[in-house]
Amino acid sequence: MAGVRTVAAIGLALAVLALLGTDVTHMVAGAMAAMVGTFAIREKTVRGQALTLALGLPTALVAMTLGAVLHSLVVFGDMFFVALIFGAVYSRRFGDRGTALGLIGFQVYFVSLFVNASVDQLPLLFGTLAIAFACSAVARFALVPETPQRVLGRLRDAFRARLAQLVDAQTQLLDAPPGALDDVLDDLRRHTARLHETALMIQGRLEDGTRDDAAAALIQRRVADAEVAAERLGMLLLTARSAERADTLTLHLPGAPVPATGKLLRAEDESTALLRRDLGALRLMVARPAEANRGTAVAHVRNRLLGYRDEECIPPGTTLAVQDVFRGIGEAARSVLGLRLALDGPQDESDDSPATTRSREEFDAEDVSITSTEKDPETADEEDAAGLRRPTTRAAFQVAVGSALAIVGGEFLSEQRWYWAVLTCWVVFLNTASTGEIVVKGYRRLLGTVLGVVAGVALAGAVGHHTWLAFVLVLVCVFAMFFTAPLSYALMSFFVTAMLGLLYTLLNTYSLDVLVLRIEETALGAACGIIAAILVLPVRTDRRTDEQLATVLERLGDVVEGAVGQLSGGPAADLLDKARDLDTSLDELRAGTQPLTHPITPLRERRQTARYLVALLETSAYHARSLAATAELVPYSNRIGADPRLARAAQRIDHNIDVLIAHVNGTADTGRVESGASITAMLETDGLGMPAANTVTFRVLRHLQRLDEGITGLARPLGVPVGPRA
Minimal CA–CA distance to 196: which of 224, 234, 238, 164? Predict the structure, then answer.
């Protein structure tokens, strides 16, 4: 949508400028200004977007004026450019608006250099900028409007689509022959991760996109239930077709050993045919929410799936593992029903079976609990660092030093186009927090630029002197930039460079030498950025990832402690928010370890260790989310009761998390991770016996057991000693 909105703004600006008879140079300036005036603004509310856009125009006018005035004053112009870069990066500390205004100031000053702006051109350039920002406003608020409600609506549709894709992947797992299991598991991992990403995106939009806190909490609960139920169904299917219980790590670690294939499920078995049929019915419930609640046949399917929550409705003659899959389908169907009730409102109940009616009554009880619970005011998790320790301040100094080096080196390469080195130095620092991230981003930028130069040569030859064809291809490249940005920074850089080749063609300054110079300036800018990151207030990748790892462990401990406390009869806590905080910190750790897991990393063993650690934490987060989702049902469910024994069973988990945190933070060299009897064995010693395998209590114990194993597994790669309690 950002790509469509930006293309609409640029296209509208070009159309208006063409009708006014503007020359090609000013049309290029208008197109670039419309682009930055659209993509720089990331605020969530319409009012905030409008205010930032209104402030962005005078910021752009000032930047263009200074660029034209300082055009002939080389030394003063360079000094101001460095100061502008410092201010643009430092302004990120003031939130989305500060980030947007800093980006607009920098990019418009860059546009003035690109089109060789002079003082006598300023009146026409001012009009061009005004038209560009007006067209950006029209595109944002009229042609491709973006409101919190619309964004949340699209994310909700995306979640349903991702959930349907995950069910498809699970169906393939059901039928996959042993030789194709690797590829099917890769698909299953990918779709599970994408569903999780979409759930996190919904979480980030709930506050602004819903009418009140109760509605936001309801959607959050239903999304979390659906995510947990879907992932659990995948694990149950994997177990059913394996010779033994599958390890949760299999769904989170690419390249993990494929479980041994047992004889529990065969394509010709009746139970396999029933599972295939019911997975198709589940997908129908997910993908077609409007139709899935109308018609006797569809209601019959829904009632059958929800009936699997009752023991007597499970098809007889199947193994325990296959029975678990049917139960998992029933729980997934329940979560889909709850999701549909939260997103689409009340529905027809005339064809409900007793099982469906019971599920609706459970949802009604949960809804009452949600709407009657007020959230505590949010508090900051971490103190804002001061002085040079603040990330924005440190990055501002780093970028300023790197840009100064890039200006000096760039002018040795070219007195006219030195600013490309500065631009590269600028962009490699965006959204990076460690030296390793900057190195990887610089490498991707250079790779994309080299490939983009090749494409630029081909496009320039194809376009020739056809101005409007070049502008159309520019719009295609702009959309491709936005579309590929979340997927690959190298691909985005490819389209940026291809677009620049077209712009040079429009300005009649294209040549192969210019594009080769672009590669040289890009390499220089990336090198200057890396040098600045290493020498100026450096943040080592291992230190950064250690901080992120400690944060993940702390939030994992918060979720487990809160969930176990509530499951054992303690007071209610806002567990789903804690679980989402855990997921957010885990995503940050995953991004922070990219320099360690990137293919260019020479230390292969370290790369494998980083992947293993992240995968273990992802599996632990899954079990923590499952515990949190179950614990949230305790206060008002007649199927789930508190069990005080669970608090004692989780003491070892709490202790081990504390030991790992102390080791990562370097606050304690003593202490070891405790090992010993399993969680289930610890409960057996109290003489009350184990709960039945199909009960919620048994499921909770399984999650605790997996958590205990996962946390103990973290000790070895972190170098923490493991042993029985002294």
Answer: 224
